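Thread: Modeling a multi-component assembly for a lab meeting

Hi all, long-time lurker, first post. My supervisor asked me to bring a structural picture of a complex we are working on to next week's group meeting, and I have zero experience with this. I have the sequence lines for every component (212 residues in total). Could someone generate the structure of the whole assembly? Inputs are pasted exactly as I received them:
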Amino acid sequence: MPDTSSPDEHPTLGLDDVVHQRTRLGILSLLRDGASMQFGVLRETLRLTDGNLNRHLKVLVDAGLLESTREEGKGRTRTWVTITPAGRAALDAEIAALRALIGAHD
Amino acid sequence: MPDTSSPDEHPTLGLDDVVHQRTRLGILSLLRDGASMQFGVLRETLRLTDGNLNRHLKVLVDAGLLESTREEGKGRTRTWVTITPAGRAALDAEIAALRALIGAHD
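Re: Modeling a multi-component assembly
Sure thing. I ran the full set together rather than chain by chain. Output:
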């Protein structure tokens, strides 16, 4: 997901909807340091329903930005979510575009 | 459109989809200094189609964040778009939330 914007372009042209969407930006942001997080922790932190979180996770996993693994336990299954290198790069590009946008407002 | 987030909450919970959406954020950002802009200038700067720009302008006008006026000229009509005080406040709240998000990444 390369940043194809040039310095002449408006900073919002460098934003990618897959990453910029509010909830997905929250998910990537929480995972950015590389630690895995449990599904339930993401859901509570971002105040989502199971369905809503699942929908956004699917978009991010399909785009190769996250990986999700299931841990079979005693009678329950836990889902862990981790950012991929591509996800980290995409989030960094988003943050750079947001910095440019905010900089234009200073 | 008050900012209902608390300092304990993840910054993305303070984002409003009406303002945060990539194209609408671009429109509000271009209008933030209060000057009116012509429809065609917004369309070219943000590389939109007429239909796409119209759709996003309608969302922003319906939310009270923009005003649009039509200027009847010699054989052509020009549409001018201006940010409202509510639009300026909503954009400032968005920028504050983005600053908090970026600050968490520093």
